[in-house]
Amino acid sequence: MLVTIFICTRAYSQGVPVYPIPFYNVEVNGYATFREAVESINRVSPAGKMDFNVMITLSQPGHEKVQATEWFYSLDSTETMGPFTVTEGEVLSKEIDFNPWGALVESDCDILVSVWIGSESKSPLTRRKMK
């Protein structure tokens, strides 16, 4: 938890861009954060849970597969999950509750990041479920 707080503090002090969720194909090199708008939370799910999905792809085709590090956090600061590593071409999916959530993504090369909440069935890519 302390490591996550340090990383988030470091990221915010460097002027990390903040994007809404959902957001698709954001170019990231360094840090980026994605946050749900609190006033837009209106989810209905019989199971009481939803999938929080993050996918990375290369921004410049032809390079080797890359990885990014990601953390998930509730906007009320009561829960933090991660770090998780996701490889280019995969979807990292984490089950979340109905509170508003955010994600911090870190990469040391140019990648495109897509973040959404809900069904991953729209993506034809490999899915890796983190529990």
Keywords summarizing the entry:
globular, disordered C terminus, eight-stranded mixed β-sheet, 131 residues, Jelly Rolls, 1 helix, 9% helix, mainly beta
Main sheet, how many strands, which sense, barrel?
8 strands, mixed
Radius of gyration: 14 Å
Number of domains: 1
Reading the helices and strands in chain order gives HEEEEEEEE
Average pLDDT, to the nearest integer? 79
The total of beta strands comes to 8
Q: CATH class, please? A: Mainly Beta
- The oligomerization state is single chain
| CATH-derived architecture | Sandwich
Helix/strand/pairing category:
mainly beta
Query: Which spans have pLDDT < 50 for at least 5 consecutive residues?
Result: 123-131
Q: Return the CATH topology.
A: Jelly Rolls
Helix content: under 10%
Note the beta-strand portion: over 45%
Q: Identify the overall geometry.
A: globular
Q: Roughly how many Å apart are the termini?
A: 17 Å
Number of helices: 1
Structure notes:
With about 130 residues, the chain is mainly β. The protein has a single domain (about 1-130), classed as Jelly Rolls, CATH 2.60.120. Helix content is about 10%, strand content about 55%. It has one helix spanning about 1-15, and strands at about 20, 25-35, 50-60, 65-75, 80-85, 90-95, 100-115, 125-130. Strands 1, 2, 3, 4, 5, 6, 7 and 8 form an eight-stranded mixed sheet that branches. The radius of gyration is 14 Å and the shape is globular.
